[in-house]
Amino acid sequence: MTIGEALKKERKDLGLTQTEMAAGVISTAHYSKIERDKHDISAYDLFEILTKNNISLLDFIKK
After folding, report:
1. What pLDDT score does 38 carry?
2. In whole angstroms, what is the distance from residue 9 CA to residue 14 CA?
3. Residues 4-63: tens digit of each pLDDT
4. DSSP state letters, 3-60
5. Terminal-residue alpha carbon distance, the chain
6. What pLDDT is recorded for position 45?
7. Does the pTM exceed 0.90?
């Protein structure tokens, strides 16, 4: 599973839109491209999105 696929799964499990998931960290357009594996995400932005949405980094990595 790619990072984009894992983010999409987490977002859907939380019942969030892409805009809600990425709010305050990166643009919705950029986030959408990450979910579709068209762009990479920096470690910093990934950690920010996970933290903002109360997603455990360890649980995320295990997936």
Report:
1. 98
2. 9
3. 999 999 999 999 999 999 999 999 999 999 999 999 999 999 999 999 999 999 989 987
4. HHHHHHHHHHHHT--HHHHHTTTS-HHHHHHHHTTSS---HHHHHHHHHHTT--HHHH
5. 7
6. 98
7. yes
Q: How far apart (Å, rounded) are the C-alpha atoms in residues 19 and 6?
A: 16
Supply the CATH number for residue 11's domain. Answer: 1.10.260.40
- The count of structural domains within the chain is 1
* Domain containing residue 30: 3-62
21-47: b (≥16 Cβ within 10 Å) or e: bbbebbeeeebbbbbeeeeebeeebbe
Give the list of residues 6+ apart from residue 8 with CB closer than 8 angstroms, or none: 35
Q: What is the pLDDT of residue 63?
A: 73
The two tokens of residue 44 are: 């910093």
